[in-house]
Amino acid sequence: MTELVRQGKAPTILVLGMIALSARFSNNEVFYNIPAKERGLPYVRHAERLLNLHDISVTTIQSALLLGAFWTGEGNPTLESVFVSIAVQMASLIDLASCPAASPIEKETNIRIWWSLRMVDVWASNGVGLPPRLSKMKPPPLPGDDITYNRDNNGAMDSSSKKSIPRSSLLSEMAKLNCIFAEIYELHEDTIKGQMGGSFIETRVTSLGLQLDEWYAALPDHMRDTPENLARFASVGLGRLFVAVYCGYYHYGQLLYYQFLHARNQDEFLSTAAAYAVRCNAYSAGLCEIIYAAHSTPRCDVLYNMVGHVLVVASTVQIHTLLNSSSEEEIATTRRRLERNFEIMLRLDNLWPTLSMCLLRLRIFHTACRRSMKETFLMDRWMLRFLRDFGRAVDERTDMTSEEIPFTLTGIGLTSDHNNI
């Protein structure tokens, strides 16, 4: 695609969609005095006018995905879901991953679009409380090696190169993790519906936790979460994709074990729940640290809007740790993370309209903690919406006792300037 853009051969609608998303990052003088959050609107409006639903093609599928991504950043999950639904339906109609391709690189592109669409489908469906559509379909082969694919700008991939592609590319790993995420989503739904007893919930959590463990254990050494590997992928232009893999891994882990934080405040805080609460905190910490590492590594800073959502969830886990820990070292570390998270969210707020919603959600959670720690971390419908519906507002929690917990952002190490969330 990069080469097509340079040659002026890329479809106009795709170019407009990419500009709509990327203009907020530009230093070009054409955007002087235009707030970053407002720069993409003229381009997305133009792209929407060009979207032709009579053209059932790969280009239209890609266009719908770009338009959906734009409206995610605008905090409009309904429009996002509409555009993603268009892409899903068209991909199903033409059997995207299996349709005839003119070359191996085109075939690989179709596979990558299908898997990207499947991952977006899970996130977009979660955001509006609907079931994903592609999760139940038989998947195609996983994507091939990212470096080989990105280096091929001539529209052809020879067979010898294809045979040597390892099935452990970063995009493949994201796809594997997304399959686990879909199951975690189903677990949360079943939990709040009361369709499972405690022992069955524990069994499913254990199984999903094992899947996450096995995923990490199966990784080759060069794909593990280490500073050296991050720098290595950054050197070939894949640093941000590497970070995205681990943002998913750590976020899905904190979601899986999140409901056991509630048990830590209850009499039934048994050994299994205790271990799960510890794991939730570990995943939350891992998420924070990989994002910090990304922002301190050249060409790795992650500035897409979903970072705000996962950091809000991670911050609530850190709040729980802060209010329950007796370790001065742990308290100091937690305060540092909370302040750093808020600083990153403020930076993202300059870029994405949806970040105001993220900050509002954190404020509402903060208020709930002040009112009562006993109910705040309970896995119920309110909590499910908080964890899942990232593009929607959440109401103040009303099922609270009048118990007050002294808690301010200043008290956790943030400056007074940060108290307005």
Automatic annotation (TrEMBL):
A matching Pfam family: Fungal_trans
Domain of life, source organism: Eukaryota
Location within or outside the cell: Nucleus
GO cellular component: a single term: nucleus
Database matches in InterPro entries: TF_fung (IPR050815), XnlR_reg_dom (IPR007219)
Coiled-coil segments: none
Keywords: Metal-binding, Nucleus, Transcription, Transcription regulation
Main location: nucleus
A GO molecular function held by the record: zinc ion binding
Gene Ontology biological-process entries: DNA-templated transcription
Domain Xylanolytic transcriptional activator regulatory: residue ranges: 8-216
Official protein name in the record: C6 transcription factor
Native organism: Talaromyces pinophilus
